[in-house]
Amino acid sequence: MKPRSRRVTVNAAATLFCVVWIFPVYWMVNTAFKPYGDILRPTPRFIPVPLSLGNFADALGKPFFGDYLRNSLIATGAAVVGGAILALLAAVALTRFRFFGRRAFLIAVLAVQMIPSPALVIPIFLSLKSANLLNTLLGLSLTYIGFVLPFTIWTLRGFLHGVPVELEEAAMVDGAGRVTVIRRILLPLVAPGIIASSVFAFITAWNDYLFAYVEMKDQSHYTLPVWLVSFSTSTGTDYGGLIAASTLFALPVILFFLVIQRRLVEGMTSGAVKD
Amino acid sequence: MTQTAPDRAPAALDEPRAAARRPRRRRLRDRATPYVLLAPATVVLGLVLGYPLVRLLVISMQDYGLRALFTGVTPWTGFSNYAQIFTGGQFGGVLLRTLLFCAALVGGTLLIGLLVALMLGAAGKRMRTAVTICLICAWAVPTTAATLVWQWLFEPGYGVINWMLTKLTVFGDLTQHDWFASSFSAFAVIWLLVVWQSVPFVALTLRAGLSQIPSSYYETAAISGAGAWTSFRIVTLQFLRPILLLVTILSVVWDFNVFNQIWILTQGGPDGGTTTLGIWSFTRAFSSESFGQGAAIAVVSVAMLLVLTAYYVRRLVRAGEQW
Predict the structure, then answer these.
(1) A264 with B136: Cβ contact below 8 A
(2) What are the Cα distances from residue B83, in Å, to A38, A41, B80, B296, B300?
(3) Residue B253 forms contact with A (CB below 8 Å)
(4) More confident residue, B315 or B200
(5) pLDDT reported for residue A265
(6) What is the number of alpha carbons within 13 Å of residue B136 lying toward its C-beta?
(7) Positive/negative CA dihedral, A24, A28, A30, A35
(8) Among candidate residues B120, B144, B122, B124, the one with its CA nearest the CA of residue B134
(9) Mean pLDDT along residues A166-193
(10) Domain boundaries, chain B
């Protein structure tokens, strides 16, 4: 093929791909901003005029919305912060010390990532039940921390390998203790790794439906995804509110992803072993 | 990464020598330090992953139903849960469905992902940015939100996809068509959803790999008289092999475990027609209150996944010998 015609083909294919791939997101936003009466029309409108915020008001006005948001934020925050702290400590141990059980721990961390989380929903449910932790944010947060830890440990371990030990030794010669070394030297240098794994932790916890659905039985304990789904089944055809709520739920993540897009792939693959 | 590990840990190797010079108490503290640092992570991992995994195996051999839930008495039944699953007449169908659906998802995601990655490389700067933004938007939408949007797109009566297909006038009037009435079209709709969400990661990862291939390789191939297809086969695919392997394994693991999308859209219906191993395990446990059987199904699916990914796991463990 000639370069010119090749370029035309590529551009046409890329355009087609963009239209198809963005369509669901476009349709979500479009539906969310439509006036209530315009949603259920035999001929759909492709531009939301007149623009309406009624669906958002409808979604936000549902009872307990504040609670769902708070529950989601707490459990997600716990997963991100708790996961990062525990994983950083573990990664320091794994990269800066040589001790009995180190290899076994690393293999266990890798192996555990191969276990599908849906398979664990039954024993986790029953264990939390006997520990009286069902329906509590503590139980849910613990679940999330456990699920993000293996990946986070693995990622931070990779980043810590890249930090020369000489830096820490120099600081220790100057009289700095271990805590100071971690806080003043390691932490700033592995910050990119912490950000990358935090993104992953955030997505895991923020998007989780299954575990929140099984663990949180009282309506006021729902997280946003559980509420969204219950919204869809309980109200049947209120697609305006449902899609507006989905938009509210998705938009922060979309914006966040677009801002950090360069680091996304790097972060996702650094957890896996490269050849 | 694994090859460079030993020479990157000089502190650990120097540890005994440095310790010899220190007083005894300090040395003890140093020896305990890694364990202290590991303890919190180990406790949480043990509680959330280790213990449940063991418990899963135990429950799968118990009569763990509604009665056990209230009385706490869980009679040991050996392999009878497994026997019931295998002989209940459902297992073969569910297994076949799970494997075929997983294969369709992995195949579709990898093929489209690879094409998009190649397209990104060939496109101009502005087109590339546009495609990347579309990919990231699709990637970022949380599964539950995406699933509900899908339900709305394919809604009988007012769904925009039904409307557009009707406008094409090829298939007749589809406005009232219920996609979830037949298991094949339900699977097709879920397939579209999962592929839509999984392609971005695969495409962007493969694109990152493609950009690492030195252009001189292609030039050499061209000089040696290789056509586009040959140079794709011997340069691109060869170079991408490790990354392709990685995304294939990750896709197999993710797609084998697709749960939310199926559960929210069909709950395994119509008439069990979209019940995969994950859905079956879940409904046995949480709808039929037969946790023992649900656990047995989960054990079987974990075992199957291990078989499917054995090659990769073996490589990981072998690489581990150099840690």
Answers:
(1) yes
(2) 55, 52, 5, 10, 12
(3) yes
(4) B200
(5) 64
(6) 21
(7) positive
(8) B120
(9) 83
(10) 6-71, 90-289
Is 70 exceeded by the pLDDT of residue B274? yes
* CB neighbour list of residue B230: distance below 8 Å, 6 or more residues apart: B221
Inter-chain CB proximity B144 and A225 less than 8 Å = yes
Question: In chain B, positions 164-183, which contact chain A (CB-CB < 8 Å)?
Answer: 175
What residue type is B162 in one-letter code?
Answer: N
Class of domain B90-289: mainly alpha
Residue pLDDT, tens place only, B141-194: 999 999 999 999 998 888 899 999 998 888 888 888 899 999 999 999 999 999
Distance CA B167, CA B267 (A): 30
Mean pLDDT value of segment B270-290:
92
Interchain pair A209, B264: CB under 8 A: yes
* Euclidean distance between CA atoms A18 and B280, whole angstroms: 36
Reported ipTM: the value is 0.86
Give B-chain residues touching A8 at CB under 8 angstroms.
none
Asked if residue A274 has pLDDT above 80, the reply is no
- For chain A, the domains span 3-57, 64-235
In CATH, what number does A64-235 get? 1.10.3720.10
- In chain B, which residues have their Cβ closer than 8 Å to the Cβ of A115? 49, 53, 302
- Residue B13 has a pLDDT of 42
| Mean pLDDT, range A125-137, rounded to an integer | 91
